[in-house]
From TrEMBL:
Residues 27-128 form the SCP domain. It holds the Pfam family CAP. SUPFAM superfamilies: PR-1-like. Transmembrane segments: none annotated. This is CAP domain-containing protein.
Length: 254
């Protein structure tokens, strides 16, 4: 999917804007992931977009990422700093960043990027991108989701490309971990079993930090196995007031 063309420049600290295809494609990808997870679509907000654009410029100008950029940074702005505190931030342009956030490598205690995108309260979103960096305003949303719990990969039919994402070849969801998040259920003591063909598959279950898009969450990391198209994985969650289970049917899309 096209990233669009950035109209700004680090020289002169010109934030510019993301070309329409880039911002539109990032939003489409966000809403595709949310649709797969059974969540309502979100829109973007022009004011948040502008602040996220300043954030992306700051990351680009300084060659690093920070949620708390110092005032001494090149191209510093109050709007950009505010966005940095409230955003997923990436060392990639805005479209591929959505895929990267959903895989979420390097965040084993929170999976915060993924959880914000899949949160009930997410949206409207702010999207800003240069040719190098991007910011996605995620905090403080007023979204209308009411899911009791949300899993990734989700129940139902799931494309293998949503787990082993071609645009993120250096990591995948099986390596980083499957997740379940909830605002209504305390998952801290949850016990998870994943089965395929009636056989228990080894999995490591980890309670995640609260906040970051949901009050409670767990990660379930496959141990020595990976998802395969054509197979159905049954996830059973016990150790919660009302145990639940769901099937993940992995398919290859033509």
């Amino acid at each position: 999917m096209s990233e669009g063309t950035w109209s700004g420049a680090v020289a002169g600290c010109q934030a510019g804007d993301t070309g329409a295809p880039g911002r539109d494609n990032a939003l489409k990808l966000i809403n595709l992931y949310r649709w797969l997870a059974g969540l309502p679509a979100v829109g973007h907000d022009a004011g948040l977009n502008a602040k996220a654009q300043q954030c992306a410029l700051m990351m680009h100008a300084n060659g690093q990422l920070s949620h708390d950029p110092p005032m001494q940074w090149d191209c510093y702005s109050a709007d950009g700093a505010q966005a940095a505190k409230n955003s997923n931030i990436s060392s990639t342009p805005g479209v591929v960043a959505v895929d990267l956030y959903m895989v979420d490598p390097g965040n084993p205690t929170t999976f915060g990027h993924r959880r914000w995108i899949l949160s009930n309260g997410f949206g409207p979103v702010g999207l800003g991108s240069t040719a190098v960096n991007s910011c996605m305003w995620v905090i403080g949303g007023q979204g209308g989701g009411d899911a009791a719990w949300t899993a990734w990969p989700p129940p139902g039919v799931v494309p293998i490309d949503a787990i082993h994402v071609p645009e993120v070849p250096w990591a995948n969801v099986d390596e980083t971990g499957w997740t379940i998040q909830s605002d209504a259920i305390d998952l801290g003591a949850a016990q998870v079993t994943i089965r395929e063909g009636g056989v228990d598959l080894p999995v490591k279950t980890t309670a995640l930090m609260g906040g970051f898009g949901s009050a409670s969450a767990i990660a379930m990391t496959p141990q020595g196995w990976t998802s395969e198209a054509g197979k159905t994985y049954t996830v059973e969650v016990n150790g919660v007031p009302q145990p639940f289970s769901y099937d993940v049917q992995v398919v290859a899309c033509p």
